[in-house]
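Reopening this ticket.

The earlier resolution said the output was attached, but the attachment link was broken on my side. Pasting everything inline this time so it's all in one place.
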Amino acid sequence: MIKEEYRFTTLPNGIRVVTENLPHVSSFSLGFWFNTGSRNETRKNNGISHFTEHMLFKGTSNRSSKKISDDVEKLGGYLNAFTSKEHTCYYGRGVGVHLPKVFDVISDMVQNSLFKDKDIEKESGVILDEYYDIEDSPEELIFDRFESNIFKSHPLHYPIIGTEKNIQTFEQRDFIEYLQKHYTNNNFLIAASGNVNHSEIVALAEQKITSLQKGKVVSKITLAKTNRSDLLIEKEIQQTHVIIGRETFGYVDKDRLKVNILSNIIGEGSSSRLFNVLREKNGLTYQINSFLNSFADYSAFGVYFSTNEKQADKATDLVIKEFDKILKNGITKVELSRAKEYMKGHLIMHLEGTTNRMIRIAQTNLYLNRTKKIQESIDAIDAITLDGVVEVSKDLLNKDSLSKVVLCAKRMI
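Inline output:
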């Protein structure tokens, strides 16, 4: 059994604090999580979650942009953030003794940022450059377009980066309104892993987090079913990029783990079916993998590959044929066992760093309202049966339910 030490506290104002003490390490990872992302946006303000994340590094009433980074880096620490479709996280790493300082810096950022007009204008240029980078990166762009296609009746449709127009037109009041609605006590979780003291972090939260409003819990919208559809995107590129897939069970659904194992068998690792069929046997592609990108209530499942234009149809046919083989013949006990060991090994190796452990305990609390133990995840993998994986494959791999997104070179007329 893996030894795990978690503590959880809900403060009177609604802020939640979850920690994992790792006595064998000297460092910590501290994350401030807000349960909001691009799925909480509208067409009019798509991109504001990500833009807000950038702006919180631009200066507060107590610190300049440079001082925000200096106050952490001069202690040998590290400060960063990320935005997803469902969450925004500001996090810092450092040596255990410096946790109070890192906590002070991040708490200052989330409460006292200024959103000066000149900073908004300057940062819009930075984010536009990031937007164009995605447009110029087929491997990134196709995943954005795939999720927009399969979730087109749902806020998960919105890309995290936003739209070119929105990025250029956000104003100070847009950020203030967004923070008042989403950066609230009951939408906020503090997570820490490593050389941490739970009581110290609770005390810091009570002392430092004083300006956030209570707010309301924003309910999630159900996905309205729509007919599957294919999408063709033409760009100035050399290779053809393809995703074949669909929506499926989300993070909170127990059947998601069966899909995860199936995905592993299909296209994760060099011993997977599609790697052997498309790359080893036919030499059609360098990049071939399956994926399962999960949100609270839905996941995006699919197979991605890139190849030259002349081989794209053949590669697509081989993917569908492999799906048909699974539907007709199922999977083997050897494949199931390999997938289980692969997943358990990657889970354990992934959690050798404090940041990944911090992210894990935060996400399980945000999705499940509890800390899911590592051993519980391992036991759940072990409990999956061959029949269970075969059962989910019957619906998941049916070609009539699959959408195809193709990103290719512009056709010459």
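Reporter confirms the inline version is readable. The mean pLDDT is 95. The radius of gyration is 23 Å.
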